[in-house]
Amino acid sequence: MEDFHFYTVSLSFLALLYAWFFIRRPGSYTSQSPPSPPWLLIIGNIHQLGKLPHRSLWKLSQNYGPLMLLRFGPQPVLVVSSADVARKILKTHDLAFADKPVMDLLNRLFYGGNDVINLPYGDKWRNLRNIVLHELLNTSRVRSFGFIREEETSLLMRKIEGLSSASQPVNLTRMLAAASNALITRAAFGKKYSETEHGKMFLDFVAEASGIFKFALRDSFPWLGWIDRLNGRDAAIDRLVEKRDASLDPIIQDHLESEDASKENIMGILLGIYKGDIPGVSIDLMSVKGVILDIFTGGTETTTTAVIWLMTELIRHPTVMKKLQDEIRGMMKEKHHVTDDGLQKMPYMKAVIKELIRLHPPLPIFSRVARDHINLMGYEVTPTTLVLINAWAIGRDPVYWEEPDKFMPERFLNSSIDFKGHDFHLIPFGSGQAMYLRPLPLGTRSQISCSGLIGPCPMELKEKTWM
Description:
Layout: H1 2-18, E1 23-24, E2 39-40, H2 53-64, E3 67-72, E4 75-80, H3 83-92, H4 104-109, H5 123-136, H6 139-144, H7 146-165, H8 172-189, H9 197-211, H10 217-220, H11 226-230, H12 233-257, H13 266-274, H14 285-299, H15 301-316, H16 318-332, H17 340-343, H18 347-359, E5 365-369, E6 374-376, E7 379-381, E8 386-390, H19 391-394
Parallel strand pairs: 4-8
Antiparallel strand pairs: 1-2, 3-4, 5-8, 6-7
Helix pairs in contact: 7-8, 8-14, 8-15, 9-12, 15-18
């Protein structure tokens, strides 16, 4: 965040030198543009983002409406803060807003954008998306990883029980992160690469990559990209790329050379497609690497952060915790551990999870880019306009939610509302053609970070014994 403030101050100074007293006022856009707050020459509204952009944008929307126009430098930006407007963009005009913003950092880290999250909308993206949906994330495949989830969860519970029995403090933050990494590496690579040299290096790369998703000058001001070279940011990304290749390439090579490599893990499936084992389906090696990165960047820290928030809310709301404990204990009875089938029989658990991601969405803001000139609710939108949909604000909109700031899972009992992208007042993972999560080009860390756009990290769950 220090870099972000440095850029903001520097650009503000340049703006003042350029035109000390020229500030654009609301209404200075054409009548065909949405309402907008004042903006400074050169930097636009960047200085108004604050440490938590989803909250800053929500506050601005209270004055300028659910569809407002900002500027990030020369880039026009539409900010959406209501379900009705989101529906028009993500459903009515979905194809017109199917593109995603291009970030220099993501292109460099994700093999030139050869992954399902960062690829532009088109035939290659559709092909890669179909591979992910039909070969990696189909129902039978997800169920086949169930034993991994059960084993790693049981192992985590035994560790917690052992520490609690010995009256030792339990650092749930650290233990949840380790369990999440173990689960993902087993599902992705077939074994716990987190315990190998290359595996540890790869997980370090993923963690460091999440922490470097910061505001970059060249994304909004290409002509100021030289500053990223001077302040060492480019060199840091180069080191990350080297670390990525030094860790992931040997893992892939190990799978390619192993005669008994299992195809029951994500890497094995992708490399099987790469070698032509599945007729009519193809993928290049760069895309194999890109998809693996998608899975890790979207599955490790996201899961850990969500569970930390869950534990935090349960500690804050002991009545909810007691109801959830009673449901789990009633379902388990003489069973030794919770299974996937058992989870389907716990309606209160499902309600708690829905309420959790309503209040703390893993993707507080997600982005689109207009592909065509379009009339949106009477306003003219030009191609390449960036669209930011504030899922955090929509999830707390009093128009749709009673007592929106209250953690109240009961609101989802006997409710058909789901988070799969069809109910636009609950879209924590996006919606429409380009529903996959993607990091956003603003904020202090990636959107899957609990110290970034998702909000300040909840209290670290240290020295807490979970009973």
